[in-house]
Design brief:
alpha+beta
Amino acid sequence: MRGNKIGGPIQWKMHFPVEACKVYQALDTDEGRRSFWAESAIEANGFIEFQFANGYVHRGKILERIPQKTWSVDYFEGPVTVELSPDGRGGTDLLMTHEGVSEDDWYEVHAGWLNVLFPMKAWLVHGVDLRNHDPTRSWDHGYADQ
């Protein structure tokens, strides 16, 4: 997003032409996260185990839940907070903030969030999964559609 600076928080905004309850459900349910974010993302005891197509596994603690408003998880290098607000026309504006990303990883993580947000929008709005689900064609191999 314009104004982001290397080493500072990463922020992205996205508009969804669906109600906040649907956006929140995509973030806060195992099925929702599996549909756009990771091959699986199962929650147990306040932690989510994200399993990615390239075989990588990350375990993140849920930090905050306010239905239809805020959802936050400890994700890789720091907290990720998603804030949802109604657009006044039945849709939802999303603001995602990822804090604590190191300068060395900043560019990759900044770009990587688009690989989460656009598939999320495609799934919520059109019921389409944009990912390729092929471990030989992952982010590690330069593919944006992992």
